[in-house]
Amino acid sequence: MIVSRGQKVPITKGRSVSDLIVTLDWQHDHTGIEVDAAAFLLNETGKCSGDESFLFYGQPESVDQSVKQVMQGDFRNETHISLNGLSSSIRKIAFTLTIHEGEERGKNFGQVSSLSLRMTDKSTGENLVSFTFGEELTKETAIVVGEFYLHNGDWKFSAVGSGFFGGLAALCENFGIEVESSEQQVEKPQLTPNPPIQSPPEAVVPLTVTLKKKEAISIRKSEKVVATLEWKSKKDLDLYCFYVLKDGTEGKVYYRTPGHAHKEPYITLDGDAQGAGKETVVVHKPSELKYVLFSAYSAVSNGIGSFKSMKAKAVVDNQMGQNVTSPLFEKNNFAYWVAIAKIDFTDPHDMSVSHVEKYSKSGTERSPLLYQDGSFEMNVGPMEFK
Question: Mind listing the domains of the chain with CATH numbers?
Fold first, then answer.
């Protein structure tokens, strides 16, 4: 099955599978780029229980040998998984790629091509999942490619394809593993059971926070920001990203104009969900933006209902271990539009994420508008029909 970024698919449901092979492939022709694959064995909290839960070139097998990393040349890595031998404490396996000393050497995944993941049934050779990714990556030095996770007694695969800055250290920190960092260290990072002597220059304080009503918080301004609209309802919601560029250009990214990664507005929408779930916007160059406003639209065909009852929320991720959720608090059964969160990029080092929850008038389909000074207004934009 060919999957797209953000898609989740069943692996073991209705199928007899005991042994799997997850293959990561890549290509590059740049001297000095060294790509490393790793697997993080995660517990129910989404973290590694200890150093033994991190499989990489120096520690290729889990303690019980149910998961093994096998390097196949310079451009391929395999992870072999025995489901029958897997510890019951393991609820998720994250498959990752990093570039060794990428920041120091000026190497990144924008210089790596043909990135793909393939999951096969080891016994039959059946191809269960095929995932190609990486076209949107630029200066990232670490990638969470995908996650194999347990849900209601069955194993599923989630195509993630998200990039990180900070290389292996940032990735390990994200999954609860501490790495040694010192100026004298010239080899690849070595695991240590003790607290790190000093944080790497790229490291930021990990943060996961849910905003209160009308609250704002500043997080590190990164080189890429991922924002998602998530909801729990069979109704089809649409994520709109209204923006103001550094030069004052105003516009919006949504299902009809999904944007561009490498030219203005440096924002892209990852497709139209066409149903319950999640839609994702990627801000590829925050340095070129002044403000963005994330809003949700519920089509007339959905009928009346509350965005809050759909558990709609916006989640902002700076890809450096800092995540901010902007939920909804008010019940409004008659609005087609809600503005949920705003980001202010005008500070050179940080960006401010604000909870703004504001609804359109009853029965009005006119969209919000974001102005050059960062203020916005409901009920004044063009009407949208889907």
Answer: 2-174 (2.60.60.30), 207-377 (2.60.60.30)
User: What's the pTM value of the predicted model, to 2 decimals?
Assistant: 0.57
pLDDT of residue 39: 96
Among residues 82, 122, 95, 93, which one has the least CA distance to residue 25? 95
Which stretches within the chain are classed as H helix? Answer: 102-105, 167-174
- 327-365 exposure pattern, b = at least 16 Cβ within 10 A, e = fewer: bbeeebeebbbbbbbbbbbeeeeebbbbbbbbbbeeebb
Sign of CA dihedral 88, 24, 116, 189: positive
> In the numeric block, which tokens belong to residue 333?
């059964």
pLDDT at 190 over 50: no
Residues 31 and 175 sit within 8 Å (Cβ to Cβ): no
pLDDT per residue as tens digits for the range 310-357: 899 999 999 888 899 999 999 998 899 999 999 999 998 889 999 999
In this structure, what is the dihedral angle of CA atoms 22, 28, 34, 39, given to the nearest 10 degrees?
-20
Residues in the chain: 386
Give 209-244 pLDDT, tens digit per residue.
899 999 998 888 998 999 999 988 777 888 999 999
Residue where the block lists tokens 């007694």: 153
Phi (first) and psi of residue 358, to 5 degrees: -145, 135
Closest residue by Cα to residue 136 from 159, 117, 118, 162: 162
